[in-house]
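Entry 12.
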Amino acid sequence: MLIKPRTSAIYSLVAFLGLAYSFLGLLIYNYVYSRGSGWWYWLGFGFVGGLALVITIRIFYNYKVISVAKGKIIIDKQFLWQKTIFDLSDLLEINEQVINTMGTSYRLLNLRFSQGFVEISEQEYTNYEAFKNYLEKNKPKKKKSSKP
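Predicted 3D structure (tokens):
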């Protein structure tokens, strides 16, 4: 099973970044050709440039493709050249957070392993329900502690 970021989520962030970098280019163009040094140019550079940079870093850092097969969850962060493999037997906790909004609900699945954690939201990733059902069926059994 392959869980990828939704195209609509990526498209909306890239469209916003296109607008932000275009506005930044317009600010630079106006600054160079107007020969003015108004304070609002520097405010615009700082605000729009900082916002665009933070969102660009967020996209590259959080973009991940998740594959599930044979009791293993493989997290592939393609832009960071990083691959993490979690064994399903190391799963400590499954926690789903549901936030109800006006007419819709935002669902976030938190998986905690002994080596780290994974967060997957329904709005950002495909195959959310199938992945959740797979985890419910294949989660490790709780070990009973023997008391002396």
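Annotation: The radius of gyration is 22 Å. The helical segments are 7-34, 39-62, 128-138.
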